[in-house]
């Protein structure tokens, strides 16, 4: 069993145990707010179950039908989790509105608060661990699962504070107000996960990764790398696919071009935390490149070298050579 699958299994088992505790708290208190918290736990379990399968599928090797691998399923997993959270928030709001017209008394508040406090501590601890490991493993699914658990912990703490205020003030409507606030909070977080998954499925640029790639290129820049442009990054689960245009001296023979591209590939792969596949298009240099080309003893130079063009996440992503003079 892979590290990712063990982490998701931890989330799944934690979710089942905490869901049972929360429903016990609901049955002894009849609190709408606690029901809201317990209902979201069902979503945690369903989401972790799907995440477990998606991690398994994402780890499968490339095949004829999936030449880029199966990593995109992680974005779909996050989409399912976001959709389930959104549904849970809607159910919570519907029940809260129903109880405005058909109220029910709340009992055993202290016992319910204690049980919810225990679940919030466990949720926060497991969520913190999953986020840390998810970032280290570059797994969007595990990181999303950890954030979901921490969000659950924050909402539980807010719930406890609200129930405590209700106990002090003897105002029963506070329970309903808490339930409605939690419902909207859950809806908002569901929307954020949906937005993140759709951006991944639509291959929206990952600015953080682009910045990381550009920083490595600037630090490891070689003289023969005259120009880099049209840089694009796609994430497939834990793997990255990067394509770009690399301008090399136009008098290089095929072996020299191959060696330069291989060097470019190896340097980036050695410094990026994710396994990366490159598609590099080699461009020959043009006379307009001479003013920022630092290649020494160039036999075809038409203009003296003046200054390197600073590579940034803005200019390396444009589909054009950097002809502008310094």
Write up this protein.
There is one protein chain. This protein is mainly α and about 325 residues long. The protein folds into two domains: about 5-200, Up-down Bundle (Alpha-lytic protease prodomain-like), CATH 1.20.1510.10; about 205-290, Alpha-Beta Plaits (2-Layer Sandwich), CATH 3.30.70. About 60% of the residues lie in helices and about 10% in strands. The chain contains eight helices and three strands. It has helices at about 5-30, 30-60, 75-100, 110-135, 140-170, 175-200, 205-220, 255-270; strands at about 225-235, 240-250, 275-285. Strands 1-2-3 form a three-stranded mixed β-sheet, covered by helices on one side. Helix 2 (about 30-60) runs antiparallel to helix 5 and helix 4 runs antiparallel to helix 5. The model has no long low-confidence stretch (mean pLDDT about 80).
Write the layout of secondary structure elements.
Layout: H1 3-29, H2 32-58, H3 73-101, H4 109-137, H5 140-169, H6 173-201, H7 207-219, E1 227-236, E2 239-248, H8 254-271, E3 276-284
């Amino acid at each position: 069993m892979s590290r990712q699958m063990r982490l998701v299994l931890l989330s799944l088992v934690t979710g089942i145990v905490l869901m049972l505790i929360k429903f016990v708290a609901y049955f002894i208190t009849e609190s709408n707010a606690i029901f809201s918290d317990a209902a979201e736990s069902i979503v945690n379990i369903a989401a972790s179950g799907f995440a477990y399968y998606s991690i398994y599928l994402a780890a499968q090797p490339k095949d004829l039908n999936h030449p880029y691998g199966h990593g995109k399923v992680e974005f779909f997993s996050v989409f399912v989790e976001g959709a389930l959270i959104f549904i849970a928030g809607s159910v919570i709001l519907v029940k809260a509105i129903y109880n405005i017209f058909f109220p029910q008394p709340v009992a055993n508040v202290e016992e319910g608060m204690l049980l919810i406090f225990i679940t919030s501590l466990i949720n926060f601890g497991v969520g913190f661990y999953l986020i840390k490991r998810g970032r280290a493993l570059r797994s969007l699914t595990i990181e999303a699962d950890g954030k979901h658990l921490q969000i659950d912990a924050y909402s539980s703490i807010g719930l406890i504070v609200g129930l405590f205020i209700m106990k002090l003030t003897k105002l029963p409507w506070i329970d309903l107000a808490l339930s409605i606030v939690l419902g909207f909070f859950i809806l908002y977080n569901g929307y954020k996960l949906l937005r993140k998954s759709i951006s991944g499925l639509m291959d929206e640029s990952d600015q953080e990764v682009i910045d990381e790639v550009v920083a490595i290129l600037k630090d490891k820049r070689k003289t023969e790398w005259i120009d880099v442009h049209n840089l694009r990054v796609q994430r497939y689960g834990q793997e990255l696919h990067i394509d770009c245009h690399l301008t090399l001296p136009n008098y290089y023979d095929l072996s020299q071009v191959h060696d330069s591209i291989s060097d470019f590939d190896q340097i980036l792969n050695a410094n990026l935390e994710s396994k990366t596949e490159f598609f590099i298009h080699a461009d020959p240099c043009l006379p307009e490149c001479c003013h920022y080309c630092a290649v020494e003893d160039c036999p075809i130079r038409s203009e003296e070298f003046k200054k390197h063009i600073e590579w940034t996440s803005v200019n390396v992503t444009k589909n054009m050579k950097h002809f502008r003079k310094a």
